[in-house]
Specification:
Layout (H helix, E strand, L loop, with lengths): L3 H14 L8 H19 L2 H51 L12
Length: 109
């Protein structure tokens, strides 16, 4: 007769010694496959080709950064302009409020 403690220890040993089958998710597998293919393609290029690809990547990256910064700048400008228009509206509304339709008309003296 085997004790429950022995069976537990045996399962732990078997779990440690058996190879683990870890299957990555499909999306991760496809990404790794594309990444490996790209790395192999890049390593197969001559040095001048590698330099060209690096410069092209830097150009595209900087262009993307420039576009994002321009978009952020535009959003800030629109925000400041909206605040200025709102403040101007509130100022005009406050000054016109005293001469509105509810005030008595001016009488000549």
């Amino acid at each position: 007769m085997t004790s429950p403690n022995f069976k537990t220890q045996q399962r732990q040993v078997n779990a440690k010694t058996e190879p683990k089958s870890t299957v990555p998710p499909m999306g991760n597998l496809q990404f790794n496959l594309i990444l490996n293919q790209g790395q192999q393609w890049f390593e197969a290029l001559p040095p001048l080709g590698k330099l060209f690809i690096i410069l092209l990547g830097a150009f595209v990256g900087l262009s993307l950064l420039n576009t994002v910064l321009k978009l952020l700048t535009s959003l800030v400008v629109v925000g400041v302009l909206a605040i200025a228009v709102y403040a101007g509206y509130q100022f005009i509304k406050a000054t016109d409020g005293s001469d509105g339709p509810g005030s008595p008309p001016d009488r000549p003296s």
